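Standup notes
- HV: blocked on the assembly model, inputs below
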Amino acid sequence: MIEHTIFLNVRYAETDQMGVAHHSNYAVWFEAARVELMRPCGLSYAEFEKSDYYMPLIELTVRFRKAAHFDDRLSIRVQLKKMPRASIIFDYEVMEEGEGIIASGQTVHAFMNRQERAVKPPKAFLDHLAKFF
Amino acid sequence: MIEHTIFLNVRYAETDQMGVAHHSNYAVWFEAARVELMRPCGLSYAEFEKSDYYMPLIELTVRFRKAAHFDDRLSIRVQLKKMPRASIIFDYEVMEEGEGIIASGQTVHAFMNRQERAVKPPKAFLDHLAKFF
Amino acid sequence: MIEHTIFLNVRYAETDQMGVAHHSNYAVWFEAARVELMRPCGLSYAEFEKSDYYMPLIELTVRFRKAAHFDDRLSIRVQLKKMPRASIIFDYEVMEEGEGIIASGQTVHAFMNRQERAVKPPKAFLDHLAKFF
Amino acid sequence: MIEHTIFLNVRYAETDQMGVAHHSNYAVWFEAARVELMRPCGLSYAEFEKSDYYMPLIELTVRFRKAAHFDDRLSIRVQLKKMPRASIIFDYEVMEEGEGIIASGQTVHAFMNRQERAVKPPKAFLDHLAKFF
C-alpha cells in the first residue's frame, strides 16, 4: 500500500453561505493529496502529463460526516491499496484534529492519452509502484 | 416523480489543462439543477434557507463516461424519485447533444438548521412535494 | 463598438460565508460574457484556440459597488470599445434588476500561441472586428 | 508596514485548458495570504467575522506578467502599507523561484457588518495594527 497525507487550511473562497466548505472542494482536496502521493513515487503528476499520460476520473464518491469550516486545519489522507490495472483506485479520508474523520471518499481513474484514448499506464510508473505491493 | 432539466455551456474557467471540464464542476452543475427543480415546487432554495433550513450533502456520487469540453452545451437533468424522509435523494444525468449521457450521479442530503442540527424538512415543503408522488 | 450582454443566476457554490457571491467569480462571469461577445464575431473562442491563438489576461480590474447574492439574476455586459492592437481591452458592467450597476471592470489581454509567445491577432479575427469600428 | 508571505503549489483544478493557472485563482491566493497576514496581528479573520465584522472587497487589481503552471511553487507576499481608515488596502506580489515576480495586485476593502452596512473597523484590530506603524 502507498499512503500520503497532506495538510491544508480551508480557504475563505471555499466556504459557501451555509458557512461551511462547499462540497465541490473535497474533490479538489482529494486531487491535491493524490498529486503528492505520486510525487515520492519518483513520478510527479506534472511529469506524468508531459509524457502524454492522463488519469481522468471515472468515478467519484464522497461521504460527508461533519462540516468543515473556514480556516479549519484539515488533513487529507490518500491511499493506493492495490496495483492499478486498467484503472487505478484511490481512497481518501479528510480529518480534522479533535473532530476525527469528517469525510471519506474514493476516486477511480482510467489512463488516457491527450487524444482521450484509453492507454496502458506507463511502465516506469508501474515499476515504481510494484516496489510497494 | 419530479424532474427538471437545465442547460449550460461549459465555462472556460471550468476547464483544466487536460482540456476538459474539471470533475469538481459536476457537483456545482448538479446543484444548479437541484435549485431549479425546487423553484417550481413553490419554494425557492433561497427562501428555503431564509426559513433557516439547509440541505447539506451527505453523499455525492458521480460517474464520468465521456469528457465535457469548453463551450459544450450540456443539459443537466435532475430527478426526485421519492418523497424525502430523514434525507432527500436526487439523481442526475449530464447529457450533450449528439454524445448522449456523458455523466450521471446522485446526491443524498440531510435537513439541517443553521446550528448544524438535524431537523425535519419544513411541512410546507413536504406538502408541495406530496402533490407529485 | 461591439457589445454583448449575458444573463446568469448566482450559483450556490459561488457564495461564501459572508452570504454574498465571492469576488473571484466576477472574473469568471466576465470571461463568460467575453466568450459570447466573440461568438457573433464569426469566431467562437473555442475555434480561436483550436487555431492556436490564446488571449491570456494581462490585467484585471474589478470595482465592487454592491454585493450579489445567491440566485440573484445578473446581467453581465461586455464592450469592446476599440480595435485591438498588441492587446485587446474589454469593459464590463454587472447589473441586477432594481439594483443598477453592482460591479464594473476591465480586462486587458495579449495574443499568444500555445508556446506562450506573443503573436499578432489572427487576420480573420481583425477583419471581422473591423466591420464594427 | 506589516508583511506576510505564504507558499502554495498550483493545484491541478486551478489550471485551465491554456495549460496555466486560471486568472480567477489569483484573487483566491491573495485572500489566503491576507488571512495569514491578519493571524499574527492577534486577530484571526475567522474571529474577526465571529465578532460580526466583514471586509468586503471594493476593488481588485491584478497585473499578470508570466503564467503560473500546475504544481509550480509560488510565494504570495501581502503587505499592509498604511493604517486602515474607512478602507484597508493590501498589496500583493506573486513570485516563483527562478522566475521572479509573475503577478502583482492590490485589494481595497471596506468594513461592514452582517447586515451589509459600513462600520468602523474594530478598535482591538486598530490597536493591534497601530503597533506596526
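- HV (later): unblocked. DSSP finds three helices and five strands in chain A. Residues 85 and 122 of chain A are 11 Å apart (CA to CA).
- Next: hand off to the docking folks.
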